[in-house]
User: Fold this.
Amino acid sequence: MDKIWKVKEQGDINVIKHLSAALNVNMVIANLLSQRGITSFNEAKSFFRPKLSDLHDPFLMKDMDKAVARMEQAIDNQEKVLIYGDYDVDGTTSVALMYQFLRNRIKDLDYYIPDRYSEGYGISPRSIDFAAEEKFTLVIVLDCGIKAIEKIKQAKERGIDFIICDHHNPDDQIPDAVAVLDPKRPGCGYPYKELSGCGVGFKLIQAYTQKNDVPVVELYDLLDLVVVSIASDIVPVTGENRVLAYYGLKKLNSNPSLGLKTIIQISNLVGHQMTISDIVFKIGPRLNASGRIEHGKKSVEMMVMTDEDESIVLGEEINSFNEIRKTLDRDITQEALDMIAHDPVHSERCSTVLYNRDWHKGVVGIVASRLTEHYYRPTIILTESNGLATGSARSVKDFDLYEAIGQCSDLLESYGGHMYAAGLTLKIDNIPAFTRRFEEIVKNTITESQKTEILEADAKLQLSDITPKFYRILKQFEPFGPHNMTPMFLTENVLDNGTSRCVGRNQEHLKLDLVEPTGNSSIFSAIAFNQANHFDAISQGLPFDILYTISENEFRGKTNLQLYIRDIEAKIY
Assistant:
């Protein structure tokens, strides 16, 4: 895989100088703010000190008045209400959020998560049958439903009302539900378009609390669920999402709900100041594992749990699902890599499409991500389910995967997703034709720059610039996530202090002690995962360049700054 380094262009120098003087920060910090579109003291203040009062009026969202009125009607008349959501983390947190809010308001309340394998994504026919048979009169759908035109029509004919809370791109037609809340739908004037599905559900609850004078603390108590959805669904951590994530992390760290508290304990995060990254890599995968291995309903059950002993038992079960998921992930990834290694023409291709009828459907998305990282090309991993080939696709930076798959729609039974990730289903007999067509489309549309992974540094830095004050200000850029990623720095011509070594079970990582050739006596600790191949050159005392982020590392009760090295000695363009 080709890989190059690049340093981002510096922002407007006059803006940088203004911010540096106004905030009393160095030029590097001021430049980081400028890169994020911050140009004034007041904008910087809002960025560093998000306020819940900055949240937008929920009634700016199209159909919000209708949604609140229908919810009020259901509560006043004590109707039978079903909460419906997708089986991923955004969907299950959404359902848990709405259930927690409504369970003391509606006596006859239940929730429904479709089975990943027998029902698939979105509103399923089986769920409509269930709602009709159990005489539910209102279904609140979260994190899906925006394309369910026929399903909503069928439900309406059977006397079931729907409120849809979604955040995905709609088709030309909008479902004929009582209310459709989606900031991306045409004609919706809501000022922030990048909410998670759980975030849209939160706005519905916010609107209800505003109209009905519910104490705001009840609303804010749900923010730990919202931040888990924001982190796990990889939505931009900007604007309103930044406010929700900022206060959601405060809740998660100080007083999480019982179910999340149990997951935190199982993830060995107790006493650790949790970040977006901890959710992405530790909390989210465990909540996702239920839907991948058994059933997503168990994750909702976990998050709405009120009994501590039962929570521990269920938490251990969910953790066991995650261990199974990790084993499947590792084994199937290796099988996929072996298939590629034995394919003599794969190196000439611009895309990867692999099919194995025995692969576990619950991890094909993860495997697609792993292979995309490894070979850096649009990747589709397929398995068999219910007599059809079904799977997940992942893309590389700036390549519109969804559009490419759409050009093969005549070969597909269904597909959905967005630019970087998609799901698809097709007849098994169509796989060869689809593979050829998809490769042809990618080959004709992908650019040379999209074939090359670009590791982009936010700025050049001297190691001596990394002071406690610098890091304290850098931490205030949190929470990090898409469109506000952890700043990455480039430092040139660093040296090994002579004590660097290979570590890890297979000696695959590098533990480094770095110094600058300028005579500065300070030693900087660093870790470079899976980069032991550089040890020989580094240990010879040759200068090298590093691309890295800065974090804190706690060891034996002492906390120190540590550089997390992304790459070593790459050529700079």
About this structure: The longest helix spans residues 308-341. The mean pLDDT is 93.
